[in-house]
């Protein structure tokens, strides 16, 4: 992996490797889930550009202190990347791409936070393992993700699928709801108006950080 590779090309490499190693019947479970999630219309329900985003105050992974959106927005635009968890290689690849772009985000006078339903200690592990220096915040039960229109509950087949891979989402998130956010990216103006929004039912597709940087 090099910093010159696009994020999507890195994600496509993960997909290709997965398809070469995982049994077809297991791949079919994931493909069916993506199709069913798309069919719910969740992509259309997320906050759209021009909407006013909700305020939030969420605990930071490393300090435990509340990070308030109002404080960040008072100093400049805010980029929010919602991610599902440290167990997802797509999410971690995206976070690392944002880490590479973080200095440029700050040069534009903007701020960046990552938000997931993981417990604070899981976000702390994520930051340490992947050397993430921007704040990672815990959205317990996907409460904030619900307000952004991107929360959903994993159906039983996917719960079983993840359990079979030893991905214990209730343990990681600290609740038994199996609720996750779509991997999503939002850019907010100082008045909380959404300038950019991207979220896909297919977790293998993400917007490029360079696309967001061009808006700042």
The CATH superfamily turns out to be Glutaredoxin
Low-pLDDT windows of residues: none
Q: Give the class from helix and strand content and strand pairing.
A: alpha/beta
Helix run count: 10
Total count of strands: 9
Topology pattern, helix = H, strand = E: HHHEEHEHEHEHEHHEEEH
- How big is the Rg? 16 Å
The main β sheet shows up as: 5 strands, mixed
Strand portion: 15-25%
CATH class: Alpha Beta
Quaternary state reads single chain
* First-to-last CA distance: 26 Å
CATH topology: Glutaredoxin
| Count of individual domains | 1
On the 0 to 100 scale, the average pLDDT is: 95
**Fraction of helical residues:** 40-55%
Order of adjacent strands in the largest pleated sheet: 5-4-3-8-9
Shape assignment: globular
Q: Can you name the CATH architecture?
A: 3-Layer(aba) Sandwich
What is this entry, summarized?
With 216 residues, the protein is an alpha/beta fold.
